Amino acid sequence: MQRNNLRPTDADFIARHDGAVRKYKRHERIYAQGDQADELFCILSGKVLVTIGSAAGKEALIAVLHPEHFFGEDCMDADGVRGSTVMAATECTAVAFRTSNAIDKFGNDPEFTKCFAAFLMERNKQLKASLVDQMLLSSEKRLARLLLRLVPPERDVEPDLVDVLNNQELIARMVGTTRSRVNEFMNKFRNLGHIEYDSNHLKVFSTLNSILIDDET
């Protein structure tokens, strides 16, 4: 007997819609901006980072995605080209659906459509927030926002993510500043008691939010 209300991460759903389960190592690029877009993805485990780059070489983080989040929705666009770069922040497993199968699901699977529509609404909020961050926030506040997105306050970060957060060159590209400035801000946050970190550990405290509401830059 077939279960109702299957989610895109359920094995039965994946099999029914010819999904392909793929595993990615941390820091592995899943696809790059400008690549051909012919698949829709849903995260089964781990986290991915979505960034957009400019012609001048600048890069900005626009989303941090978690299990049951979709990415690669630009496969629905007429031009069929990726508008962003997606990298596995941790070891990650995702299911890939061919574009034709994904479009078919919108017409024949109300549960999938409902789930995907809810995700798109949340993604739209994230994009607006990222745009506001880039236009209005200082690089110090953008770093604070990034840390708060990646690490649940008062909890130790997952071991696989520590390596990402200690890669200050990568973090600098996401924030839109220099590595030296990231190092300066991280030390400042630690001295103020907002974070604890070393090469194998990082903890973010909710007091880091004070950086975002402080009017001083």
Give a structural overview.
The protein contains 8 helices and 10 strands. The chain is α+β, with helices and mostly antiparallel strands. It folds into 2 domains: 11-134, Jelly Rolls, CATH 2.60.120; 137-213, Winged helix-like DNA-binding domain superfamily/Winged helix DNA-binding domain (Arc Repressor Mutant, subunit A). Helix 4 crosses helix 6 and helix 6 (168-175) packs across helix 7 (179-191). It starts with 10 loop residues before the first helix and ends with a helix. The model has no long low-confidence stretch (mean pLDDT 80).
What's the short version?
The chain is built from 8 helices and 10 strands. The model has no long low-confidence stretch (mean pLDDT 80).
Supply Rg.
18 Å
The tally of beta strands, per DSSP, is: 10
Order of helices and strands: HEEEEEEEEHHHHHHEEH
Q: By CATH's scheme, which homologous superfamily of the largest domain applies?
A: Jelly Rolls
User: How confident is the prediction overall: mean pLDDT?
Assistant: 80
- Walk across the major sheet and give the strand order: 1-8-3-6
Biggest β-sheet description: 4 strands, antiparallel
Helix coverage percent: 40-55%
Low-confidence stretches: none
